[in-house]
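Sync notes, pocket subgroup
Present: LS, DG
LS reminded everyone that the earlier model was apo-only. Rerun requested with pyrazine-2-carboxylic acid included. Inputs:
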Amino acid sequence: MLDRRRIVAGLGTIAVATLVPKHLWAAAIKPDDGSALLVIDVQNCFLPGGSLAVKDGEQVVPVINKIAKSFANVVMTQDWHTPGHISFASVHSGKKPFEVIELAYGKQVLWPDHCVQGTDGAGLSKDLAIPQAELIIRKGFHKDVDSYSAFTEADGKTTTGLAAYLKARNVERVFVAGLATDFCVAWTALDARKAGFETYVVEDACRGIDTQGSLAKAWADMDKAGVKRIQSADIG
Ligand code: VGL
Ligand code: ZN
């Protein structure tokens, strides 16, 4: 039987839950020394005016700057393609951006030329304000292999070295933010799970491309893999 104290305590919780906005009472997630923020591809090409602009992509920048203040460990990534990269529609005759083709390593969505090494489009947003970021991982620099994930290239085996780096520094938890939710963010989060990290995606610190149902599929895949979907207000 429920004793009176437990009933009173229970009623208290209900009262708090009803009256206080969720972000004020939800157990805040406090990043510690074993946590790292992975800031994915916040680059000019994916921002307004860029060659592969993600809708509302610029809105992630202030959110990422804010949550980054809670992290001692921040890693950024930079999509960094060769000219004529295999993921560019322009190198496949008769193909247009967003069409899907079959390559040696599987399906590949074709993109407008973007994030070519050394170009302004490949630069990180000048509005990012994360001076403590300790590592920038470049990816997608092998001409014949794409790399959405910050951990493993699209062939499923070539590593970027990020998992080993994080493990060497005793990181156990990663928080993923940036662009685009359904490609580089999702593939990074899925690989983080495969590498054994507790993995959070900060939804309002990401924006998606959403081509051919990719955004819903990405969230379903992440959910199945045990990726935790949180909001920036949950951190702090
Ligand atoms: C990305 C498409 C192509 C991304 C990179 O950062 O999500 N998407 N290259
Ligand atoms: Zn790319």
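DG: Helices lie at 4-19, 22-25, 60-68, 162-168, 181-194, 214-224.
LS: The longest strand covers residues 198-207.
Action: DG to write up.
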